[in-house]
Amino acid sequence: xxxxxxxxxxxxxxxxxxxxxxxxxxxxxxxxxxxxxxxxxxxxxxxxxxxxxxxxxxxxxxxxxxxxxxxxxxxxxxxxxxxxxxxxxxxxxxxxxxxxxxxxxxxxxxxxxxxxxxxxxxxxxxxxxxxxxxxxxxxxxxxxxxxxxxxxxxxxxxxxxxxxxxxxxxxxxxxxxxxxxxxxxxxxxxxxxxxxxxxxxxxxxxxxxxxxxxxxxxxxxxxxxxxxxxxxxxxxxxxxxxxxx
Length: 245
Fold this sequence. Notes:
Layout: E1 2-7, H1 24-39, E2 46-49, H2 59-69, E3 73-80, E4 93-97, H3 103-120, E5 124-129, H4 133-136, E6 141-149, H5 153-159, H6 162-180, H7 187-192, E7 204-205, E8 213-214, H8 223-235
Parallel strand pairs: 1-2, 1-3, 3-6, 4-5
Antiparallel strand pairs: 4-6, 7-8
Helix pairs in contact: 1-6, 3-6
């Protein structure tokens, strides 16, 4: 099972912030990080990121990457906004699929929406359709979730909270596990890191000690250079991961 998580926008995307300065990407990327950790506890599951913590990745590059890797599902994570500036009372959770309502995507969106509404207690704005790029240009099923409004003074406090971010990640991961019937790793697999994972460095071994040893294959200023080396390692049969600093 190959899952692409997309933390919407980027750290420097103009305008994507609350009236008090919270950057949307800060929330989106934190939820993606938490969701990745949770999903890596399932067997035969590989997690990719469409975004980068170092640069703003264009939408076309994100969907091209998903299509090239032939992932099974694409999940875009966002925080919402309303109006041209300042605070207002628009609020709640909503999840989007492409207007044709692909069956699997729509089922997953319903699960994500239900989980988030139950977990957060925010208003249920429903599952909606939209012609967003990430929903239109992906060849696989895709959903986009809006986890609250950055222009709502009460909800932005939640969006700034680590606990709320983990709650959203748990709701999304639970929906994915339910939709695709993912099986949890055994305690031994979880401790040793066995099973399929994505986005770290080099090879690894437990050495029979229960500890996990990793070999770093390189350090790069540009993500594309790290991905090129990681791809070479994968073709050679190694489990290659990328960790951003």
